[in-house]
Write a structure and sequence with these properties.
Blueprint: E1 2-12, E2 15-17, E3 20-25, E4 28-34, E5 42-51, E6 53-58, H1 79-92, H2 95-111, E7 114-121, H3 132-144, E8 147-154, H4 176-188, E9 195-201, H5 209-222, E10 226-230, H6 234-244, H7 248-254, E11 262-266, H8 272-281, E12 284-287, H9 289-295, H10 302-308, E13 311-314, H11 324-339, H12 347-354, H13 356-362, E14 371-375, H14 389-392, E15 398-403, E16 406-409, H15 417-425
Parallel strand pairs: 1-5, 6-7, 7-8, 8-9, 10-11, 11-12, 12-13
Antiparallel strand pairs: 1-2, 1-3, 3-4, 5-14, 14-15, 15-16
The structure holds zinc ion.
The site of zinc ion has 6 residues, from loops.
Length: 429
């Protein structure tokens, strides 16, 4: 299948070019050529075409309680009190509900220009088939039309010397052997092009060290992406010090678990040595600024990480908002508020975080024909110098979304939007 797109402007090597056309064959980019060589190309008049956004960290089910935890409450409200509300949602949703909620989250992602999602998936039970829910989530992404890397989560305990929360039973994979067998089974059912698997030991808190070592050795052999929540909360660091005498990053570095396939999700509370350890290993950090500000987690030291050579991916995480360009500019804005200084990260690097560095973290096929377009007449960007579009483009400017050379969203419309929203609204809250 051959498709040729000739937008008014094409984003190439960090800038916008005119008179260019993208030739797609069998879902991959075959060539980028002068548009006048392709007289039958589809002209995208008034559109700038850019590489598809990659959402490297999502828990799709958390979309179901968006807005429910924003009222001021008695007592301290923080990540841990928010987690109680999240557990109520995780405990009550059936596999069919999880599918409907995931479809809505993925629809919202597609409409925001996201072409691949990394779903950090930890609700496995109770079900005869331990991959049933994972497969429902994959089907949800494919029905919407975006790619999905299903990061299957390993979860063995509540924490060091902590009793299990009843809802956490749905997350459990008590042994590495069982977990890896389930990952293998899942892998054999995915197509490898539009859906594939990675592994995600939940956190140092939830996966003991022996288990982690075994999963990490397997990942080294299989060359899959490995993602882990790391350094999101001060309490997590304290608990790790109490158990192992070091912080999570220091532990992972000492054990040789950090690698170019490793992504530390959050990476907020980092020392200078830990930043160097991530850089030395070639590991990535996945920042989730819209969630991190919503939960009061803290600020990712993005300029320091990039300065050391650590790639940053972005995730919508709790789905408090689904707007990856907002996550991209917040990397910079949070540092401005903290440092009382502007211009700390180049806009082109903010966009790399939303695209190529996220794609590397999830192992998206490098020549995947995935794009979104911006409507150059959208009020948010009309007349704006486009080199700083990351700061100005609101998601209302996203007009078309193309995955594997095919339209998923065209002129801001997704064919299944009405049905997906209706089914979501019928989920019993
Ligand atoms: Zn997360």
């Amino acid at each position: 299948m051959r498709r040729v797109f000739a937008p008014e402007l094409l984003y190439e090597d960090g800038g916008f070019q005119t008179g260019r056309a993208v030739v797609c064959e069998n879902g991959r980019i075959a060539a980028v050529v002068e548009a006048n060589l392709e007289p039958h190309a589809l002209r995208l008049v008034g559109r700038a075409m850019l590489p598809g956004l990659v959402n490297a960290h999502s828990h799709s089910f958390q979309r179901v309680f968006r807005g429910e935890t924003e009222q001021r409450r008695a007592g301290r409200d923080d990540f841990w009190s928010w987690r109680e509300a999240m557990y109520r949602a995780a405990g009550r949703l059936s596999a069919a509900d999880l599918y409907r909620v995931a479809r809505l989250a993925f629809l919202e992602m597609a409409l925001a220009g996201i072409t691949t999602v990394g779903e950090f998936h930890y609700i496995h039970g109770p079900d005869e088939n331990p991959n049933r829910i994972a497969l429902e989530i994959v089907c949800a992404a494919r029905s919407v039309g975006i790619r999905i890397c299903l990061l299957r989560v390993a979860y063995a305990r509540a924490g060091f010397n902590r009793e299990l929360h009843p809802v956490q039973r749905r997350f459990l994979e008590p042994s590495p052997e069982r977990f890896l067998r389930h990952v293998e089974e899942l892998r054999s059912q995915l197509d490898g092009e539009y859906s594939w698997a990675g592994v995600a030991p939940h956190s140092v808190r939830a996966v003991p060290l022996d288990y982690l070592r075994e999963v990490s050795q397997w990942v080294e052999r299989e060359k899959l992406p490995i993602h882990m929540h790391v350094a999101e909360q001060p309490r997590e660091l304290e608990e790790c010090r109490a158990e192992y005498g070091v912080t999570p990053i220091a532990l992972l570095a000492r054990e040789g678990i950090l690698s170019s396939r490793f992504t530390a999700v959050h990476g907020i509370h980092l020392s200078a040595e830990e930043v160097q350890a991530l850089a030395h290993a070639g590991a990535s950090v996945c920042a989730c600024p819209t969630t991190e500000r919503n939960l009061g987690d803290g600020i990712v030291p993005a300029a320091e990480l990039l300065g050391a050579g650590v790639r940053i991916a972005l995730g919508s995480d709790s789905q408090a908002q689904i707007d990856l360009l907002e996550d991209a500019r917040e990397l910079e804005y949070h540092l401005r508020l903290k440092n009382l200084e502007r211009g700390l990260i180049a806009p082109a690097d903010l966009f790399r975080a939303a695209t190529e560095w996220g794609a590397a973290s999830l192992q998206v096929p490098p020549d995947a024909a995935d794009f979104f377009t911006l409507d150059l007449r959208d009020p948010s960007i009309a007349g704006v110098p486009l080199e700083s579009f990351v700061f100005s483009a609101s998601k209302s400017a996203v007009a078309d979304v193309i995955v594997g050379g095919e339209f998923v969203v065209r002129d801001r419309r997704h064919d299944l939007a009405g049905e997906i929203v209706d089914e979501f609204l019928a989920v019993d809250p």
